[in-house]
Structures are given as C-alpha cells and as structure tokens.
C-alpha cells in the first residue's frame, strides 16, 4: 500500500502535465468537432454532426449534398505517402544499422551520434535546407550540370518526390535507431551456425536476421509512419502546397477556410488512424512478451 | 508514448497558443513578416523603456485564427481593412478611441472614418498598397500588363507561376480579370473563378506566401503573386531583375491598420507604440524601409521612394480594395479554394 502511494505521488506531476496538456486539449478538440462552425472562425455551441458528414458529403455548386471523395483522396494520399516513406526508410536503414553494429565501439558511438545529430537542428531549417538543395540552380542541379550529367532539367522541387525526400530525411533516424538496437542484440552465433549448416547469405538474412530483428523493424516502421501522417512542413515547403496531406488540410480548415469544427473532426480522424497503428504495435508487443 | 504526445501536440498546437506573463514594460507586436524596420524597434525600446517582442505572420487568416482562439497575448496587430471590419464585428478588438489619439492627426484624411471602422474608434490606418504579381525579367520577356499572362500563362511562364497560399488576394484578382464583383454571392460567377484557377493550377509551380523574394529574384519561378512594396524592395535592395506588373484589369488594394486586440494586457503601451510609430520621423523611416505607401504623414524631403523611381507604389493601374465578404460569399470563396487544392 505504502509503495503504491509512493508511485502515485511520484507520478502525479506527470499525470497532471499529461491531463492538462494532452487530455484536456483533446477533449476540447473532440467537443468542437461536434459543434457548428462560425462564419469567421470559432464555433457556436450548437450540436451538429455536419463536420463528420462533410468528410464524405460536401455541398456542390447548387448546395446539394453529394457524395464527394475529395477528402478521402487526401486521407488516402496521406496514408500512401507516409507508408511509402516508411518503406524507403526501412530499405535504407537496415544496411546502415547493420553496418554501424559491426563497427568498433568508438566508431559506433560516433556513427550513432551522427545519425541523431540532425535532431539538434530545428525541423524548419532542415526542411529548408532541402529547398536550397533541390531548387533550380540549387546545389544538386548545379553540381550535376557541372559534371555534365544533365542538361536543362525541370525543377526538382515542388513535387511529391521532393516531399518524400524531405520526409525520409527527417524521419529516418527514427527507423535506424530501433533497428540498430535489435541488430545489436542479435546473437552472432546463430549466424555462424547458419553458415556452418551451409545456409546461403540471402537465406541467413531471410530466415535468421530478419525474423530476429522484427521487433525493431515494426517499432521503426510505426515511429516513422506516425509523425508522417501529421506532417505539415514538407508538403508546404517541398511539395509546393499543391497536393495536400491531412496535416495541411487540418491547418487549412483552422486558418483559411475558418471551419473549426471540420478541422477538429479531421484532427479526431487523424488521431484515430494514429491510435490504430499504435494499438496494433502494442498488441504485437504484448503478444511477443507472452511468447518469450 | 513520446511520439503520441508529439503528434497530438502538433495537431493541438493549432488551437492552443501559449500565453506569456504580462509585464508593465512589455509589448507584444504581431505583424506582417519583415514589415517593421528593426531600427525603429530599437529606437522605441531605447526611448520608452518598453520591451518589444515581435512575431510575424504572412496572412490575415493566420492573424484572425490566432485572435479568435482567444489565448493570444498580442498588444498590437496589423490587419488589412476587411479583416479590421470582421474583427470589430466579432468583438475581437479593443476600443482605443482612435479618433482622439495623437496618431489620428497624422492620418491622411482620405483614410479616416472608412467603412471598416466608420467612427474611427478601433484602428489607426498605417500603410497601404496593392497585391499583384511580379515577373522575373531575365526569364520572362513577354508582356506584364494584364492578369491574362498570370492566369493563363504561356511560354516560359507556363509551369513556373507561383501563387499566394491563401485565397484572400488571389480570388479578388481572378474576379478583376473575369470582371466579377468582389464577394459575389452568385454561384455561377464563383464557378467561373474556380475554373480559371483550376486551369491555372496546371501551370503553377508552388502556392506560397513565404520567401517570395528569393523565389522570384533567383528565377526559380518566373511569375509570383506579390505585394507592390516588397517587390520594389527586392528590386532596389538586391538588384533583382524583376518587374511589378500593372494589369489593365486593376490591382487588388489593401490597407493595414494598427489595432489592439481585446484581451491585450498592455494596451497603454500599445497606444504609446501606435502614437510613436505615427510620428512623422518614424513613419518616414518606416516608409523608406517597408517601401509601401504610408497612410500617415511622412517627411517628403527624406523619403527615398518617389514617383520617378518607384513605379510599384505609384501604380498606373486602377485599384480596387478588397471587402469583408458576407458569410454566404465567404463560403463560396472557401469552396473554390478547398476544391482547388484538394
């Protein structure tokens, strides 16, 4: 009993901060999403499900409600681009993490430090650096031209590819670190045993290394996917603001469109998607624990 | 867990703004990006002992959303005329009895008691200008005297046009081009606006209201929506090979005023600041820096920008000021914009 109350009092500040900064605002968002939007931003305390029905049904030019997939398209695009980013991060991260894990201790520390280094710089600055790299006559284009590799090319900036480059760059450390952690834990004797038994390298990778690293891969995947789903900066600065992602749509509803209830309902939707992935992972993790 | 927090906080930060503690010698100014001469801020702090915290925005909508959320801590903000009207209407501004402030005596008569603040109680008009577009003359040799080139770009411009990231000034521009009233409630008219913008989108490189200067000066895009004085500053200060277009259909006019939000905690300091900024010498320094037309009196002998060397701010084109749209008209504007960027 005494132990419990110690825990309780010790954690109280954390609970307070969490409920004040996280639960309460979420409740406000939830509340606003069921209210009626005011014409100039803000909301009226009149219950309405309109903001949720707007996700599927929007008024056409004659004010008739019609089934409209424009928002679902944005949601699908967000899921697709975030998923693709996570896959690319995975493909790049695995060899990197494996390489780091095979270095001497000093080298490991240095390399891991370099991986986390970008996190010390503001995200806006990091994304903006990509604007400078990819822009017309930017670092990349002018060096390619200098080596005669390209002639006159169209802008590398302001398209989905540029956006993905930015997203991969921003979130890749979140993939490298958990994969590295799981490779570190890998028992090298198992690899040796596999080769003793005449397993090919590919086979060892497929049947020994990858299954053992699965927890790290899943964790990294979720860690990259989740912030990608809410990303705002990359579509704006690198994507050129032409194709929206869910984060931009939400921002737009609170700013330009002055439709706070709709913005709030989209936020709730985004939260549900994020929670879905997190719960999936929690479920997996608990299953793994049971197994071991 | 950390990342759940991170993601939710990102979403929530839109609705929540942090408040700082009010101090007597403090002043929180929220204004257009790069609009106030840093020298003026320094001088004001030295002369009055009031510490200024400066924040900036790039669209009236951002400002409105901040004020509307109620938790912002700003003491002086600079909305454009139609947003002054909306903010008064929504009860977001403090009645500062503007007509009896010393600053009001400096205001040019033609900007007093206008439709957005009929009895001049809330706002001191400060700067005005136009929104149009700028072309990069190194990359684009064609004409720049109509909105046609901007909305229906051809040649070097096609694919290299940049448009403001909010509908506030671009939809009125489209309306000027199509000869449609601002804030129209006619759906058929707004459908035409949508079709024009939709067609233009094929040739648009980016929708952005940030960092316009580097984008157009470097030739990364060849046409960019821009404001008169900003375009002039880039041409004069950075020798950018650019030209501000004078479309024959007209330019979109704006006038920014100094106002005090309702929940300002340093409104006396705010009034001191407004009066100080409107003093002739300071207004002149600001005019020379910001390079937009001044709504308050300036010392003409010290003014750098004159009719002969500053065509941007002495436009030959006709100017039409944006209005505060009715909710019905605004809904159509939002519909056009969301459909366009979906």
TrEMBL record, chain A:
<dbReference type="GO" id="GO:0005886">
    <property type="term" value="C:plasma membrane"/>
</dbReference>
<feature type="domain" description="ABC transmembrane type-1">
    <location>
        <begin position="75"/>
        <end position="281"/>
    </location>
</feature>
<feature type="transmembrane region" description="Helical">
    <location>
        <begin position="161"/>
        <end position="181"/>
    </location>
</feature>
<feature type="transmembrane region" description="Helical">
    <location>
        <begin position="260"/>
        <end position="280"/>
    </location>
</feature>
<dbReference type="GO" id="GO:0055085">
    <property type="term" value="P:transmembrane transport"/>
</dbReference>
<keyword id="KW-0472">Membrane</keyword>
<dbReference type="InterPro" id="IPR000515">
    <property type="entry name" value="MetI-like"/>
</dbReference>
<feature type="transmembrane region" description="Helical">
    <location>
        <begin position="74"/>
        <end position="98"/>
    </location>
</feature>
<keyword id="KW-1133">Transmembrane helix</keyword>
<feature type="transmembrane region" description="Helical">
    <location>
        <begin position="110"/>
        <end position="133"/>
    </location>
</feature>
<dbReference type="InterPro" id="IPR035906">
    <property type="entry name" value="MetI-like_sf"/>
</dbReference>
<keyword id="KW-0813">Transport</keyword>
<feature type="transmembrane region" description="Helical">
    <location>
        <begin position="12"/>
        <end position="34"/>
    </location>
</feature>
<dbReference type="Pfam" id="PF00528">
    <property type="entry name" value="BPD_transp_1"/>
</dbReference>
<keyword id="KW-0812">Transmembrane</keyword>
<comment type="similarity">
    <text>Belongs to the binding-protein-dependent transport system permease family. CysTW subfamily.</text>
</comment>
<feature type="transmembrane region" description="Helical">
    <location>
        <begin position="216"/>
        <end position="240"/>
    </location>
</feature>
<protein>
    <submittedName>
        <fullName>Spermidine/putrescine ABC transporter, permease protein PotB</fullName>
    </submittedName>
</protein>
<keyword id="KW-1003">Cell membrane</keyword>
From TrEMBL, chain B:
<comment type="function">
    <text>Required for the activity of the bacterial periplasmic transport system of putrescine.</text>
</comment>
<keyword id="KW-0574">Periplasm</keyword>
<keyword id="KW-0813">Transport</keyword>
<comment type="similarity">
    <text>Belongs to the bacterial solute-binding protein PotD/PotF family.</text>
</comment>
<dbReference type="InterPro" id="IPR001188">
    <property type="entry name" value="Sperm_putr-bd"/>
</dbReference>
<feature type="signal peptide">
    <location>
        <begin position="1"/>
        <end position="22"/>
    </location>
</feature>
<dbReference type="Pfam" id="PF13416">
    <property type="entry name" value="SBP_bac_8"/>
</dbReference>
<dbReference type="InterPro" id="IPR006059">
    <property type="entry name" value="SBP"/>
</dbReference>
<dbReference type="GO" id="GO:0015846">
    <property type="term" value="P:polyamine transport"/>
</dbReference>
<feature type="binding site">
    <location>
        <position position="34"/>
    </location>
    <ligand>
        <name>spermidine</name>
    </ligand>
</feature>
<dbReference type="GO" id="GO:0019808">
    <property type="term" value="F:polyamine binding"/>
</dbReference>
<keyword id="KW-0732">Signal</keyword>
<dbReference type="GO" id="GO:0042597">
    <property type="term" value="C:periplasmic space"/>
</dbReference>
<protein>
    <recommendedName>
        <fullName>Putrescine-binding periplasmic protein</fullName>
    </recommendedName>
</protein>
């Amino acid at each position: 009993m005494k132990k419990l109350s110690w825990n309780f009092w010790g954690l109280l500040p954390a609970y307070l901060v969490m409920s004040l900064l996280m639960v309460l605002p979420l409740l406000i968002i939830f509340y606003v999403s069921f209210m009626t939007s005011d014409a100039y931003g803000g909301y009226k305390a009149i219950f309405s499900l309109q903001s949720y029905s707007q996700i599927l049904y929007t008024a056409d030019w004659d004010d008739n409600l019609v089934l409209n997939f424009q928002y679902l398209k944005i949601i699908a695009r967000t899921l697709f681009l975030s998923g693709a980013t996570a896959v690319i991060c995975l493909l790049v991260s695995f060899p990197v993490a494996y390489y780091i894990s095979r270095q001497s201790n000093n080298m490991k520390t240095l390399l891991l430090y370099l991986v986390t280094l970008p996190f010390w710089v503001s995200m806006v600055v990091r994304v903006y650096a990509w604007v400078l790299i990819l822009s017309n006559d930017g670092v990349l284009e002018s060096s390619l031209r200098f080596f005669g590799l390209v002639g006159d090319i169209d802008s590398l900036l302001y398209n989905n590819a540029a956006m993905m480059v930015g997203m991969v760059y921003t979130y890749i450390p979140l993939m490298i670190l958990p994969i590295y952690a799981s490779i570190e834990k890998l028992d090298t004797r198992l690899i040796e045993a596999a080769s003793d038994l005449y397993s090919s390298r590919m086979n060892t990778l497929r049947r020994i290394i990858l299954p053992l690293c699965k927890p790290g891969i899943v964790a990294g995947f979720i860690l990259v996917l989740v912030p990608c789903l809410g990303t705002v900066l990359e579509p704006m600065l690198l994507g050129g603001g032409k194709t929206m992602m869910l984060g931009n749509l939400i921002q737009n509803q609170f700013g330009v469109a002055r439709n706070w209830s709709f913005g709030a309902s989209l936020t709730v939707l985004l939260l549900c998607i994020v929670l879905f992935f997190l719960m999936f992972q929690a479920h997996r993790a608990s299953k793994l624990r049971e197994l071991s | 867990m950390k990342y759940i927090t991170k993601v939710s906080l990102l979403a929530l930060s839109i609705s929540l703004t942090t408040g700082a503690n009010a101090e007597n010698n403090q002043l929180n100014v929220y204004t257009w990006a790069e609009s106030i001469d840093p020298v003026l801020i320094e001088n004001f702090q030295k002369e009055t002992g009031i510490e200024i915290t400066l924040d900036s925005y790039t669209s009236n909508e951002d400002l409105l959303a901040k004020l509307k959320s109620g938790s912002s801590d700003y003491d002086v903000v600079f909305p454009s005329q139609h947003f002054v009207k909306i903010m008064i209407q929504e009860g977001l501004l403090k009645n500062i009895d503007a007509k009896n402030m010393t600053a009001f005596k400096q205001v040019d008569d033609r900007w007093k008691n206008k439709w957005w603040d009929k009895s001049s109680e809330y706002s001191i008009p400060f700067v005005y200008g136009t929104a149009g577009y700028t072309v990069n003359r190194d990359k684009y040799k064609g004409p720049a005297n109509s909105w046609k080139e901007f909305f229906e770009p051809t040649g070097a411009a096609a694919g290299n046009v940049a448009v403001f990231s909010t509908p506030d000034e671009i939809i009125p521009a489209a309306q000027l081009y199509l000869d449609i009233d601002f804030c129209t409630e006619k759906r058929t008219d707004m459908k035409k606006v949508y079709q024009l913008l939709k067609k233009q989108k094929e040739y648009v490189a980016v929708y952005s209201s940030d960092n316009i200067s580097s984008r157009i000066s470097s030739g990364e895009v060849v046409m960019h929506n821009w404001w008169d004085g900003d375009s002039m500053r880039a041409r004069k200060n950075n020798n950018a090979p650019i030209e501000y277009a004078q479309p024959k259909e007209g330019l979109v006019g704006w006038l920014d005023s100094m106002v005090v939000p309702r929940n300002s905690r340093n409104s006396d300091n705010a009034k001191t600041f407004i009066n100080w900024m409107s003093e002739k010498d300071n207004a002149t320094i600001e005019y020379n820096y910001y390079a937009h037309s001044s709504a308050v009196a300036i010392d003409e002998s010290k003014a750098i920008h004159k009719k002969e060397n500053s065509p941007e701010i002495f436009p030959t084109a006709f100017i039409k000021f944006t209005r505060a749209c009715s909710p019905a008209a605004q809904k159509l504007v939002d519909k056009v914009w969301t459909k366009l960027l979906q």
